[in-house]
């Protein structure tokens, strides 16, 4: 009976102590720093609460594991993001901004300036709040307690004020301050007055160090990024475009992957910010980067083998064959070691594939980190002009890529895109020497091991036109999509839509589509290549020079 009374007394005393401590906490919270919401005061409050909690923990000897928890080697980095904007403000939580009909003409006029709805962008707060679009498994992830710092490099040319500043504010608000070494803005010869002194004055008042560098003359994205990278002091360089919005927890998973292995180059999931309404639309974590026959970057569905490698855990990074190139993080020393960007490339285009091939073929790894989300304004066309035209610039860059990295597929690329062969690639001796120095693997190795899903045929019998000898007409895809019929037209000898590959698997391929004969007398269609023979298996009779569907 005495033991029961003693036990009851202990419970009463313990309960009283708990209420006493709670009362002390409330008193300290409401009496200290009354009316003061400064950061220093808030920090002071937090210290007191933590101190009292620690005393309570020791007093009551809360259950502790007998061994050190693995979680003690990690920490939650994500900053607490407070939504201070009224929910009815335009664009809050990533909602679309609808322009009323009476302002439609003004919207159209402003759209021409940047090829996105500038009127909508200007009505959205520079610090607008976005939803947390990460997978649930990402939200509680912890990362190494010591991560490398990063320099954020943003190149701009005549960028809109609201999109550029929203990019900067999102970086600052959504990133742990100790991880941001600096933000480097590289002005590639902008002509807008507001991007001069007003920009410098504005960013000088922000809470992280920001440099504004000027190229002086139009240099293009590639060379402007190199200027920014040369000035970077962070251990990691993070490249962003000038019309992005970072979301909560975007940076830590990128830096954590590089901290584990400096030869990793990592990209966030690139979400879509609508060019029409600035609605924030999360992208799938089941897409990765690839390319087509013309060396154009394309998004494709992640194949089953990569799903299996990750054991179905969609919070793990995806090993992607290529990257879009606008948004990625790379260890600064590693960036320099593998040759940075190809300085012989002009303006923009092809540099993302060239760097992707180089990373994989020269013993690096390229990943999409699925726990990192950054929004990007995807435009249907560019508002900028290029010397000699866009196609000339892209063909020049792709020719350099082909000469250095494609090996025997160089001829394949030129057959598909003969215009690129006529464009001067310039001197590529240094880049070829770099490849030798880094002991890089072959492009065949890349296709077989990194991107076996590629539509680049590993082996083929013939590559060229399919010509009717009697009518002198050629089979032509007319750039049609999967499921549509092919047709015939005048043979133009310019490659492109009239080039087909007859592979050793007896497919007739046109990029990622194959000729498909669904019935004996029915039309021949373009259908996504499935590699299973059947309607896509063709025999060629050398004697009569005819192609037959099997």
From TrEMBL:
Annotated metabolic or biological route of this protein: Protein modification; protein glycosylation
An annotated GO cellular component: Golgi membrane
Stretches that traverse the bilayer: 12-31
CDD domains per UniProt: beta-trefoil_Ricin_GALNT1-like, pp-GalNAc-T
Record bears the keyword Hydrolase: no
Top-level EC class as recorded in UniProt: transferase
Membrane topology: Single-pass type II membrane protein
Family statement: Belongs to the glycosyltransferase 2 family. GalNAc-T subfamily.
Name this polypeptide is given: Polypeptide N-acetylgalactosaminyltransferase
